[in-house]
Automatic annotation (TrEMBL):
<feature type="binding site">
    <location>
        <position position="163"/>
    </location>
    <ligand>
        <name>NAD(+)</name>
    </ligand>
</feature>
<dbReference type="InterPro" id="IPR014358">
    <property type="entry name" value="Enoyl-ACP_Rdtase_NADH"/>
</dbReference>
<feature type="binding site">
    <location>
        <begin position="192"/>
        <end position="196"/>
    </location>
    <ligand>
        <name>NAD(+)</name>
    </ligand>
</feature>
<dbReference type="InterPro" id="IPR036291">
    <property type="entry name" value="NAD(P)-bd_dom_sf"/>
</dbReference>
<dbReference type="GO" id="GO:0004318">
    <property type="term" value="F:enoyl-[acyl-carrier-protein] reductase (NADH) activity"/>
</dbReference>
<keyword id="KW-0443">Lipid metabolism</keyword>
<dbReference type="InterPro" id="IPR002347">
    <property type="entry name" value="SDR_fam"/>
</dbReference>
<feature type="active site" description="Proton acceptor">
    <location>
        <position position="146"/>
    </location>
</feature>
<comment type="similarity">
    <text>Belongs to the short-chain dehydrogenases/reductases (SDR) family. FabI subfamily.</text>
</comment>
<dbReference type="Pfam" id="PF13561">
    <property type="entry name" value="adh_short_C2"/>
</dbReference>
<dbReference type="GO" id="GO:0006633">
    <property type="term" value="P:fatty acid biosynthetic process"/>
</dbReference>
<feature type="binding site">
    <location>
        <begin position="65"/>
        <end position="66"/>
    </location>
    <ligand>
        <name>NAD(+)</name>
    </ligand>
</feature>
<feature type="binding site">
    <location>
        <position position="14"/>
    </location>
    <ligand>
        <name>NAD(+)</name>
    </ligand>
</feature>
<protein>
    <recommendedName>
        <fullName>Enoyl-[acyl-carrier-protein] reductase [NADH]</fullName>
        <ecNumber>1.3.1.9</ecNumber>
    </recommendedName>
</protein>
<comment type="pathway">
    <text>Lipid metabolism; fatty acid biosynthesis.</text>
</comment>
<keyword id="KW-0444">Lipid biosynthesis</keyword>
<feature type="active site" description="Proton acceptor">
    <location>
        <position position="156"/>
    </location>
</feature>
Length: 264
């Protein structure tokens, strides 16, 4: 294979359908010669993921619910058997109960707080731990975060708290794996209409507001997140670790949005 990812093998976790951010990343990596394996959450998703895998020549598909230790062990056993070593891992997984992605954060239950943290935060560390022994020097790990980690965003609630913890874990993992020349970064993507995002109450308002306020005057695309991921996962970013890279059409730099129509 030719391209920026030629000779590199890795796992992409979190393709649910053709709108998934993980799918945008998969296409960008495959296009540059990466050898990719997919993991998907459960049998119900298999029939959606299989045709996508076939489209870009992915032949290794493993079922892996990250709340299940045995499933994570099995995923890396399969990859070890197939590849021996690997070069990248993409974690594009998040979950919280829909009922708590609306209204006031203060109403978060202990149960959903723990569930959200486990699936959306701890799982990245859990898979990094299992992948560690297999990762070649020069490897790169990537997760996905959102601006709601840093600032209040209506309805994002416990997910914002989880993303803040995820961003902190990127820094701790980058420290721990750095001596082995393994890099760890996150992309903070602008809002995109995906299955997971549709669970957040008022997503349309969020998309509209960001489109108006962002310097580029539009929302980011799945392809643009894919290209940024390609940079971070390839040797182009060999000096970059522990970072949260915004891919949000610049939305994060705006301190006060003036609506041109209202101002006129
Ligand atoms: P998506 O619904 O396509 O992907 C979410 C994935 O998480 C799905 O593949 C789902 O199967 C997986 N998942 C959930 N629980 C799981 C579990 N227990 N075990 C294994 N997998 C599980 O939506 P997406 O928007 O592509 O989300 C990918 C990542 O991007 C998430 O971390 C999300 O928070 C983040 N993100 C999304 C946006 C956005 O606006 N869409 C913005 C910034 C960050």
């Amino acid at each position: 294979a030719q391209g920026l990812m030629a000779g590199k093998k890795g796992l992409i976790m979190g393709v649910a359908n053709n709108r998934s951010i993980a799918w945008g990343i998969a296409k960008a990596l495959a296009d540059q010669g990466a050898e990719i394996a997919f993991s998907y959450q459960g049998e119900a998703l298999k029939k959606r993921v299989e045709p996508l895998a076939a489209e870009i020549g992915v032949t290794t598909l493993v079922e892996c619910d990250v709340s299940n230790d045995a499933a994570m062990d099995e995923t890396f056993r399969v990859l070890k058997e197939k590849w021996g070593t690997m070069d990248f891992l993409v974690h594009a997984i998040g979950f919280s109960n829909k009922e708590e992605l609306e209204g006031r954060y203060i109403n978060t239950s202990a149960e959903n707080f723990a569930l959200t943290m486990n699936i959306s935060v701890y799982s990245f560390t859990a898979v990094a731990k299992r992948a560690e022994a297999m990762l070649n020097p020069g490897s790169s790990l990537l997760t996905l975060t959102y601006y709601g980690a840093e600032k209040y965003v209506p309805n994002y609630n416990v997910m914002g708290v989880a993303k803040a913890a995820l961003e902190a874990s990127v820094r701790y993992l980058a420290h721990d794996l750095g001596p082995q020349n393994i890099r760890v970064n996150a992309i903070s993507a602008g809002a995109i209409k995906t299955l997971a995002a549709s669970g957040i109450s008022g997503l349309r308002t969020m998309l509209h507001f960001q489109e108006k306020a962002a310097p580029l005057k539009r929302n980011v695309t799945q392809e643009e997140v894919g290209s940024a991921a390609l940079y971070l996962l390839s040797d182009l970013a060999s000096g970059v670790t522990g970072q949260v890279q915004y891919v949000d059409c610049g939305f994060n730099i705006i301190g006060m949005h003036v609506d041109d129509e209202a101002a006129a």
